[in-house]
Amino acid sequence: MKVGEKHYHTIWLNADGRSVDIIDQRWLPHEFRIVTLKTVADVAVAIRDMWVRGAPLIGVTAAYGIAIAMADDPSDRHLDAVWEELNETRPTAINLRWALDAMRQFLRPLPAEDRAEAAYRRAGEIAEEDVELNRAIGANGLKIIREIAATKKPGEPVNILTHCNAGWLATVDYGTATAPIYMATEAGIPVHVYVDETRPRNQGAQLTAWELNGHGVPHTLIVDNAGGHLMQHGAVDMVIVGTDRTTANGDVCNKIGTYLKALAASDNDVPFYVALPSPTIDWTVKDGVKEIPIEERTGDEVSFVQGRGPDGAIISVRVSPEGSPSANPAFDVTPARLITGLITERGVATASPQGLKALFPERS
Ligand code: MRU
């Protein structure tokens, strides 16, 4: 997508053919910084400390991490060690393990001397595939927005609420939840987006609002607690969120607070959609609440807020008393029964084993 007049992906191979450049998302929306990841340790830090974040982008970054590892030492032992090292960086987003598995299965049968070049090629393909998956999600989600615009909001904007950042910054391009929004805008369908700020790290306020601003999509930033009130008053026509892991039964794990939005949507008959590429489906897990590991991040993310100070510097300020402990579960699980539909690259599935199997019969 665009930053100013220039088109960017969130990740790309550096001109040296070995390192990887990323947009360092810690500084947005205040500063646009690109950094180069040269080593596996750089890649691990970038994922763990959320220089890159969002399930699909985490996966692509890890794939490039394997490529860097193969350029260092293409042995099986090193491949396995780096698989373990990167897999531990963030526990919830399944795209991480999906990409690591895809890379290892592809590289294992190859002779060691061919692995580095093949790994960079495969990582690049995984990145391009992500763009295509999101484009297809966008086209499928656009049909839903078009339908709501025609039947419920003729001549008026369709109001869409989203949580966290499932935008182009969370993927290689387009985003998952935002792809239908960008496509609707391109198609001339008026939309307006309510952006949940998404405490504690404020991915909505810092990233989604920045993206939508950059593409001229009308939007309003709201506090996380405003969604229920807006839905009660008919201000929200649909919700679209992303996901870090969706189970074979259609339960959706996503950024903390998603579940509360789904409850409010259900109580107010607001359609609640989840946009996801198939690498986000964990076919080995059935019950999301019981089986998905929820990342517990540092309480400092709750006790402090980052922003731009009066002198222009990016600063962190404490919002709670010294000594008050804080807890920080980073994700929650929305049960399938609260979800209207799963917007995938192959179409829209009901959030159920039958719905997912109908779209992905090879998984039956
Ligand atoms: O902790 P984050 O910022 O990595 O969490 C991201 C989300 O929860 C996104 O909504 C999710 O990864 C879907 S992104 C297409």
How many angstroms separate the termini?
36 Å
Query: How many domain modules?
Result: 2
Low-confidence stretches: none
Q: Which CATH class of the largest domain is shown? A: Alpha Beta
Kindly identify the CATH topology of the largest domain: Rossmann fold
Q: What is the share of helical residues?
A: 25-40%
Mean pLDDT: 98
- Structure annotation, total helices: 12
Shape: globular
Rg calc:
20 Å
SSE order, one letter for each helix or strand? EEEEEHHHHHEHEHEHEEEHEEHHEEEEEH
Which helices and strands occur, and which strands form pairs?
Elements: E1 2-3, E2 6-7, E3 11-13, E4 20-23, E5 34-37, H1 40-48, H2 55-72, H3 76-87, H4 94-107, H5 112-151, E6 158-162, H6 178-186, E7 191-196, H7 203-214, E8 219-222, H8 227-232, E9 238-241, E10 245-247, E11 252-255, H9 258-267, E12 272-275, E13 281-282, H10 288-291, H11 300-303, E14 304-308, E15 314-318, E16 331-334, E17 341-344, E18 347-349, H12 353-359
Parallel strand pairs: 6-7, 6-9, 7-8, 9-12, 10-13, 12-17
Antiparallel strand pairs: 1-2, 3-4, 4-5, 10-11, 11-16, 14-15, 17-18
Helix pairs in contact: 1-2, 2-3, 2-4, 2-5, 3-4, 4-5, 5-6
The chain binds 5-S-methyl-1-O-phosphono-5-thio-D-ribulose.
Catalytic activity: 5-deoxy-alpha-D-ribose 1-phosphate = 5-deoxy-D-ribulose 1-phosphate; 5-(methylsulfanyl)-alpha-D-ribose 1-phosphate = 5-(methylsulfanyl)-D-ribulose 1-phosphate
Organism: Ensifer oleiphilus
Pathway: Amino-acid biosynthesis; L-methionine biosynthesis via salvage pathway; L-methionine from S-methyl-5-thio-alpha-D-ribose 1-phosphate: step 1/6
